[in-house]
Amino acid sequence: MKKSIGICFAVVTLLGSLSVTQAKGDGFGEVVKFIEQFYHVKHQGIPLLARAGLKTATTVARISGGPRRQIAEAGSVKVAYFDDQDFRSNGSYVGFKSSMNSLLTGWSPLIQAASPKEEAQTYIYLREAGDKFNVMVVTIEPREACVVQVNLSPASLAKLMRNPDEMGNTITVDATTNDNQ
Amino acid sequence: MKSLSRTPLKSAKLAALAVFLMLGATATAMAQNPRIQTSQLDGLAAKASETVDVNIDESLMALTTKFLSSKDDDERKVKELVSGLKGIYVKSFEFENEGQYTDADLESIRSQLRNPGWSRIINARSKKDGSIEVYLMHTGTQVSGLAVLATELKEITVINIVGPVDLEKLTQLEGEFGIPELGLQGTAPKRKN
């Protein structure tokens, strides 16, 4: 999880500038806003157009043994990250999870994992989007967090479903990795 | 006049009977549901050092079956294993210390597994390794679900697989779809209710 969040920051450094990405009414923006309100933090976004053409993820290729290809559909990636802010929940993890589930009506919670001792949480939600799937991954650690939403083809999702524990990390790395990394 | 005055009463009795039958049918259907409810355990999350909750519902199982490759040996094997399954649900809690949960916490799960249709096929207990109980639900002659309740001093895992599944299939699914390694390979049924 640390690696994936770290990569979020590396992408921003590479791009050299920050801007705010806030989609509204699609779940992503609502989750980002909710995290801001719950933890009293502010997010930074990554200009998505700037990412176009940068990404060549190999995760599915590693899983399937096939040629290099990316998981997320081109242009479908939304990323918001929270750097060097306080995400210690002081035991309010259960309330956070419950609120997330209430917020994301229409999304199915695939995996929800938490390590309250380490103040780490991972959530993966899915939603059908035509012939694709929207997948949202939320990772939270004591000092940083990342929200990623991507569109996946059913074939990619089916492969990733075999290992849901690793799915969040795989998607986050895929969504935030570029050729230069 | 008499017959007229009795008609509403008769109707009310019939309506009550219909409601009673409907409630009975609903209760039976719920009792025969291979999907067990685990939300009652959520209160343990506050005391746990690790929690994992995996929900793969029928539509996601269908997707997996449809899109895993038949050409790749590994994927084909998994595809065959999950074919027909309608859901895989896993919930686990790890605790820092012993004594963070009691049998009363597990009763919400065990009470469901005492319902008609469920039969316990494995009940293995050891002081060192904890206990593991495996239950199958039969609907007619078909297996329609499986449940595992595995407990250690500092850990609880509940697995619920909905659909045609057996012990052999479960052992092959260990490590896939969020199902942890249970070490069931070679475990012989020890007790049957």
Textual characterization of the structure:
The complex is a heterodimer of chains A (181) and B (193). Chain A is of the alpha+beta class. Chain A has one domain. Chain A has helices spanning 2-15, 28-39, 48-51, 59-64, 93-103, 154-161, 164-176; strands at 44-45, 78-82, 108-115, 120-129, 132-140, 145-152. Chain A has a six-stranded antiparallel sheet with strand order 1-2-6-5-4-3, with helices on both faces. The longest helix of chain A has 14 residues, at 2-15. Helix content of chain B is 35%, strand content 27%. Chain B has 193 residues and is an alpha+beta fold. The model of chain B has no long low-confidence stretch (mean pLDDT 85). In chain B, a hairpin with a 2-residue loop joins strand 4 and strand 5. The N and C termini of chain B lie far apart (58 Å). The relative contact order of chain B is 0.16. In chain B, strands 1-2-6-5-4-3 form a six-stranded antiparallel sheet. Chain B has helices at 2-31, 58-67, 73-82, 103-113, 167-173; strands at 50-56, 87-94, 118-126, 130-139, 142-152, 155-162. Chains A and B meet through helix 5, strand 3 and helix 6 of A and strand 1 and helix 2 of B.
